[in-house]
TrEMBL record:
Residues 6-71 form the XRN2-binding (XTBD) domain. This is XRN2-binding (XTBD) domain-containing protein. InterPro entries: XTBD (IPR021859). It comes from the Eukaryota. It comes from Octopus bimaculoides (California two-spotted octopus). Pfam families: XTBD.
């Protein structure tokens, strides 16, 4: 997925730190989920990493697995 295509997902309220995390997540995982699911998971990922949010166990496990692939 190109940077131009990914940039359409940036929200006006996102800081550069939040967007950097989310952009990388979107780039790495763009081929694994449909668009809506990918965007939702990317938002959850940032909320977990930046704000310490928690989600139901299946979501947390999914994000943990996807996070491991970002390294």
């Amino acid at each position: 997925m190109s940077d131009k295509k990914i940039s359409k997902y940036r929200n006006a309220f996102e800081s550069s730190t939040e967007w950097g995390l989310r952009r990388k997540f979107l780039k790495v995982h763009h081929d694994k989920f449909d668009e809506d699911r990918l965007v939702c998971l990317s938002m959850c990922y940032v909320n977990i990493e930046v704000y310490g949010c928690t989600y139901p166990a299946p979501v947390m496990k999914c994000i943990q697995r996807l996070k491991a692939e970002l390294k």
